[in-house]
Design a protein that fits this description.
mainly alpha; globular; disordered N terminus; disordered C terminus
Length: about 400
């Protein structure tokens, strides 16, 4: 008779340990709701038009921007003195500057149609729901949602009420649909332009990969966002935004508390005490690596999955203005890696590298914010190694898509 403990063999034990960790992480969501939402909602009405203390403090910025836009003052979001007064008046919190273009303001426009707490609940439910759905489409497995909820980028975005879920849903959805419906997939990718630092490499990838219909869709949806925001908010709002770009960049230079929360080479260099010029040199090297990686893989007969992973990782390497809540998009290649290994077999040490890639962001964030240790960019080293190994292995297999014509 087999011992009951025989189930815990060498193969199953790591999975069991990860499930315990993941379940613990999911419990963090309950902790946020009890610790942050509970006391606040006991002291003020869920439907209060003005609140004394908010939850998900980053959401204050998005809700206040919507409040001003709906009140007929869209350009005021770029007036920091005006914005911080309104933030304090209607949410009891702030001040946070608005760094986004009017296209992002258009996306946020409906948020203040509801009271703050109701709006936040709708925002998180809808964007997080679509984000998890996209990840499930990438890796249709019963554990996908659990792994996604336990991922650090997911938790940070949930706790802060940020827009990372939306970015990941649009980017992942566009890449998933790129083969079956390239025009629609391209349109979703074009909508990522509401946040330009994430969208910058998308046209280059589609161009290199000769995805003409997708590129047309991306250009069309991106132009639609620009024109619609100009019509809704007025062209003056765009003029104010363009005028404020130097000030926004200056904030990137001088906010030491931000550096620990941005896992880019630029931010890590500044956190380590290097000057702006040195930091930009380091970021420039990272950007060149990102473009080289993208060109190498998208100009090769790689599978759609490998191309999708390469684009996401290149985006994270390229942008100097990436926050930890933007790591929701890192969940996309991690899900692809897991599903590729599950369905096509694992390469040596690939499982260990993948698990480490999944867990490293929480370690790097903790070291950066608590000890001011600038190791943020290291979270991309292992995923890039995974990508290159899987790409080279795939090329050696000579899969059926190697001679497929791009659409």
């Amino acid at each position: 008779m087999k011992s009951p403990m025989s189930w815990f063999d060498r193969r199953r034990l790591p999975l069991f340990a990860i499930m315990i960790y993941a379940t613990f992480c999911v419990g963090l969501y309950i902790g946020v709701l009890c610790r942050d939402w509970g006391p606040v909602l006991r002291s003020q009405s869920l439907m209060a038009p003005k609140i004394k203390t908010p939850v998900a403090t980053d959401y204050v910025l998005h809700w206040t921007a919507s409040f001003l836009a709906l009140a007929g003052e869209p350009a005021a979001v770029y007036d920091y003195s005006r914005l911080k007064i309104v933030e304090k008046d209607v949410t009891g919190s702030g001040p946070l500057p608005w760094p986004y273009p009017p296209t992002a303001l258009l996306v946020d426009l409906p948020l203040a149609l509801w009271p703050y707490f109701v709006s936040l609940a709708i925002w998180l439910t809808v964007t997080m729901g679509v984000y998890l759905l996209v990840l499930y489409q990438i890796a249709p497995h019963s554990l996908t949602i659990l792994w996604a909820l336990a991922f650090f980028g997911t938790f940070v975005n949930f706790a802060q009420g940020q827009n990372g879920f939306l970015s990941a849903a649009l980017l992942g959805g566009g890449l998933v649909l790129l083969e079956s419906t390239p025009l629609v997939g391209g349109m979703l990718l074009g909508l990522v332009s509401y946040k330009p630092q994430i969208a910058a490499l998308i046209p280059l990838a589609l161009l290199i990969g000769r995805r003409w219909r997708a590129l047309a869709g991306a250009i069309a949806s991106g132009m639609f966002l620009i024109l619609a925001s100009a019509v809704v908010f007025g062209y003056d709002t765009w003029a104010v935004f363009l005028k404020n770009i130097p000030g926004t960049i200056t904030n990137l230079y001088i906010q030491p508390l931000w550096f620990a929360k941005m896992p880019s080479v630029f931010a890590a260099s500044r956190l380590a005490g290097y000057g702006v010029t040195t930091a930009w040199i380091g970021q420039g090297v990272s950007m060149l690596v990102a473009v080289a990686l993208l060109v190498w893989i998208w100009s090769s007969p790689a599978s759609p999955v490998i191309r999708g992973m390469a684009l996401v990782l290149a985006i994270l390497l390229f942008s100097p203005h990436i926050w930890y809540y933007d790591l929701t998009i890192l969940a996309l290649p991690l899900a692809w890696f897991w599903w590729e290994g599950t369905t096509h077999g694992w390469l040596p040490w690939e499982q260990v590298l993948l698990i480490s890639s999944w867990m490293i962001p929480v370690v790097s964030f903790s070291l950066a914010t608590r000890l001011m240790v600038p190791i943020g960019p290291l979270f991309l080293v292992l995923p890039v190694i995974l990508l290159v190994r899987r790409f080279l292995w795939e090329q050696a297999q000579k899969p059926k898509w190697m001679h497929a014509c791009p659409t």
